[in-house]
Amino acid sequence: MNEIFTKSNVLFMLDGLRLTLFISVFTIILSIIAGTLLAVIRNYGKGPLLPLVKIVGAYIEFFRCTPNILWIFFFRFIIPGNVLTKEILAFTLFTSAVMAEIIRGGLNGIPHGQFEAALSQGFNFPQMLRYIILPQTYKKIIPSVLSQMITVIKDTAYLKAVDIAELSRNTDIVMGRAVTAGEIMSLFAFLAATYFIICFILSVAVRTYQKRISV
Amino acid sequence: MTKLFSIRRWMQLFGDFDQFLAGMRTTLIVALLGLLIALALGILFGVLSSVKIKILPWIARIYVEFFQNTPLVVQVFFYSFGLPFIGVRIPDLMVGILGVGLYHGAYIAEVVRSGIEAVPKGQVEAAESQGFGHIQVMGYIVLPQTLKITLPPLTNQAMNLVKNTSVLAMIAGMDIMYYAKSWAGNNGFFYQGYLSAGLLYFILCFPLTKLTAWLEQKAKQVPSQKKINNGMEADV
User: Fold this and answer.
1) I need a surface site. Which of A102, A114, A171, B27 has the fewest CB within 10 A?
2) Full set of structural domains in chain A with CATH
3) CA of B213, closest CA in chain A: separation in Å?
């Protein structure tokens, strides 16, 4: 039954895992950067920035309300360029909408006194964000960001639809070489277990961190 | 950009719009039935994780962890492609319903569990001292009180469930995303196909996010004191 788990097959699938993790980490990092920008504009934009605030709001709502797979296909078929780059961009596009809301939640949780204290010390707005507000915000949102990381890792499985060589797609190809039902089943078990181990470790980290904060 | 604003392409889209509506029908059926299954499983396993008999919370835990920590795509692919190998064939529509139902049931179970844990222990003890059984305590005392804090995350789950029905497109499940993809691919009108699919999902999901925000706002408010009319004023 385990004839399907040859060295080359296993390495091939683990190669896919490497790409899955690469896409996920890259997406999360880019989304934190873009999400911070979006959150700051949506939260503190005023005066001449007001139209931009509206646009950012619409962007966040629209991407939160449409399925990821839609943007995966959209980028695959409409935007020219390297498929992997395009798909990381697509992932960043909808993940930063979620990330913006996470960061906004963190920003809203910072006590008002922190802002006043920073301004009274002569910090200007960007300095206040950079040195006082954002460091505290990032610390607060670590659990939510890790949860989002789990979501992104799971969602990368959609990428097999556009033939990116991530874990699910590579396992699919190995399944094509399988002969018996037992081999198919053990490949499914392998696939589920691999995702499970990574996501479960992350979810334990989320819970541990949440407990530490709430104590 | 000329492709995006081509009138001919948009006219063709309106001509073929019945395909999108057929997809919308599938998406709605899968979302509604999936939500029912998710709610049933979520309440069942949420309650089980707060039961004192030790093995039951463990079963609930395993269900929640397994379904939350593996991709929906893999689960759905297993139902539609894996199960036939061991002689179980499920129709595509059912795969969608079961897929999102089982997946979101795990999330709803966590929502229900944390709701139950938020109800003070004294409430349960008081009810038990009045002779309520465990099921009665849950049904009459605990679960109704959890509604206020569980409703916002529940509507949020409903929104995610609607979005996740699009996983059906991966197995040619005749939903909005499937029709959009095939229509766009057949005609080569990708902007028109995907943007209208996006609009249809937006129409389904946006009201749910508004509802979530409204319920969150409601849950934060301290309830105003109710005027108790016990007939006293009439006497005076």
Assistant:
1) A114
2) 2-214 (1.10.3720.10)
3) 12
